[in-house]
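Sequence in, structure out. First:
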Amino acid sequence: MFHKFLKLPIELQLVIWHFHWPPTRHYFTLYDARIREYGAISMEDERYVNRLVPKRKKATLDFIPFLTKIPFTGQIRVRLRRVVSVDPPEPEFSMIGSKAEVYVYFAQDVFYFDDFPYYYPLTDTWAKEEWFRFLRKPITQLQPPKLHKSHWIFKVRNLALRLEWIGESRGTEWDHTILRKMKSLKEVWLVHPRTPNIAIETPFLMINRTFNELPYSVDGGVKDAYLYLQGKMKEYGIDAPVVMTTIDT
């Protein structure tokens, strides 16, 4: 440890923090019908990292100006690290009751949303796969909320969206209500696992396999979803390229 770090000029401390803060991929899904799930993975070594804000009033990271704290509501299951003593390794997690916050760096972090179908037991119906259901409050909310313009989702610059494995996902009307307001977007990834029921973090770790143009192996449904979203970005006036990535295993 560099024990004299805090004695350096604050400007130099911030430069060091900036260059040593690893880009992070944050993923958002549902653990079950009432509990959200979140995880953060370092892009340097593909390991889970703990981005939770400590419960105490002030932490060292609170003084890093390029970091932002984003809040979650309701119960959330947070993946923290992988257990290496079991085969295959399973990630450990922490269950947070409510009011969890995590540190993010909007300029370089990637925010990855699962396309999660939802079952309403009272009406015995399934809702269409939705990318941003994680943001509903509560998850069981039938009518989607109106997110305030200051909501953190509208500050996201790098967005990744999971395509259902048969390639039919195009987002719900509410998904597109949010997308059209994400004017800070710089790049959008469509993550297409070509094997059903693959764990969400598996293609997330493999997102570096990208294509500037669609590969010949992509089926028609995926291609249609890709072209549809590409067209929507232009319609919404968002100058963010749509990048396709497919996962074969």
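Second:
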Amino acid sequence: MDRGRTRVSYQRNPNFCERIGQSLIGILIGSAILIGSSVLIFWNEGRAVQTAKSLDEGLNIVVSLDNPNIVSAENHGKLVHLIGSLQTDKELHDEAYNINVHAVKLRRVVEMFQWEEHETERKYDDGNGETRVEKEYSYSQVWRSSVIVSRGFDDSFNHRNPTEMPVPSKNYAAQEVTVGQFVMSYGLKEKINNFKQLGLSDSDIHTQSRVKVHNDYFYHSDDVHRPQIGDTRVKFEYAGISGKSSLGTPDMVTIVARQIGEKLLPYKTVAGDTLELLYFGSLSPKAVFDREMVQNTMFTWGLRFVGWLLMFIGFTCLTSIVTTLVDWIPIVRDLVTMGVCLMNLSLSISLSLTIIAIGWIFYRPLLGFAILAMAATPFIMSQFRGQPARSRMD
């Protein structure tokens, strides 16, 4: 790690009126975030319901093929399930490094040894209406697959990177991939991404004398143990072993797609989705659709969390003016901040659950109404807790 300079600057702290102005702007921003998060959650629930319907439909109509080497005309246009090994006619070839593999995909990954800048910022309140800002810069030497632009470095003179990669990265893909007698679509080929690094030996050394092999990399360097800025290393990765190969036996895959003659194409469901599924290994139709259901559930919950987080941030922006009004009173400020935070948490959870419930009421009514009841729980509890207080006042 090479330590650079530390730069010091001072920022004037905003006064009370300026903080109020910032809070008013926050209200506008918070409103926009709330609208956006509500749209995101509602769209996500619609997508989840549609995907669930499509998967249910697919599982009910899929036809299993006992032998992928036999193409039956009676399955034309139907959603089929088949298991077989990947096959390609030709090897993938990288001419620059004389690499040949029998696989569906091959990629050349090039990395260059470069400077990388790290910035550490610290802020201190000087107590005189200003904030002291210290920015400390440091530099390390790393391997990266893309060019790190050094023109914007704080110390670009002593830490200068090349402006382009000496050797370009490159991807190769088989034109035609078959499973038995069936030809896979482009979409199915794109799902083959089980990349593994290709092992290299001294016999694979490139014709250029400066190229060396170390730890399954081609090094363009005088010394692989002490690389210099601008040195490069190259590795190769493959995916989808196919046909006779020194890499091992062909990969077995399970496919669910629409049969059109000898081609496997996307299947359009009544719900509006397309089914074009591929998994490695031998799986039953139910196992395939169960995995898709799990993926749909995980993706749905991931977007729900993002939507809720945005909604919480939106409510926080909306209520920031409340904490701004009392931030000059230490004890009151802390109590109000905690109360507002809890209120924002409750509102964001309730509103998120309400939108989620609306999306599921028509598909699964019991689940939808159960979620809606959960969303209303905080408000119902507040009503019950408020009744004894009103009774004592009476």
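Remark: Helices lie at 16-61, 186-190, 285-318, 320-326, 330-361, 365-393.
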